[in-house]
Amino acid sequence: MASAAAQSSSSSSGAAAAASAPSASAAAVGGGGSAGGGGGAATATLLTQLSESVDRLCAAYKTSSAQIVDGDRNLVDFCKLFERCVTHASKAKRPLDYWPYLMECLDNDDAVRAVQASKANKTILGKGRCFVRYGLNNKVLAELMQVVLLKAKITQKFYHRDSVLRNEEHAKRFLDIIYHLNVVTFNLDPNACLDDDWPAFPTKSFGSSSLSATGGSAAAPFAAKSFGGGGSSSGLAIPAGPRASGSGGSSMTGGSSSALTTAGTGPFAGAVYVSG
Question: Are 240 and 271 in contact, with CB atoms under 8 Å apart?
């Protein structure tokens, strides 16, 4: 009888643990380095938080018409949420090592050269954060991330299936959210050290000399951009600009040949879709 009671107790404990597992999984939003990134509801919550942070940045900029600079609380919130999205369900041994993925996808893009040329950041984490700020300063963060997500094979290598970046529905929402920041002007210190954390203090203004590949004044966001291949294209949309068409000195090489079609309505209206 005692043995039967022990077995019953063990069975009940196992059932309780199994029943609690889904809720524990759903509570986990960032899944860097784990086999998965949590439930769909948790991922949707993360993207909602990202959207709300973008809304606050846009509202602040619209109200004051002043450039967003270091020390802005909304900026710090956005950067941390963006980083959670790009590390969600990562296969990396160190969850925050997302720079190697971006670098492999973008190859020799201006953004990669600018980040690699930065002497302020020595770690992989610091370089990843430097990339985010480069994108904000030059109004190309969403465009760069869209190019990144077209490299489906590389994305598959770095992320689990349920990640924000591999799940097509989540990825499209992610891009739609950050595209709203194209209307905001950022003036962030190009020489800030980001190895330890995002800057949470105000700094001086830097005029028009935002981080650029040449170390001088930033060029027009779409000027002479080029990036190599490595992986096939996905079904995500590319803005109808130089990066999509290959005009203005841009080129897409190394990927599979794709057919371009233009989206008519929705968040990607006017965008050019790539289908393998």
Answer: yes
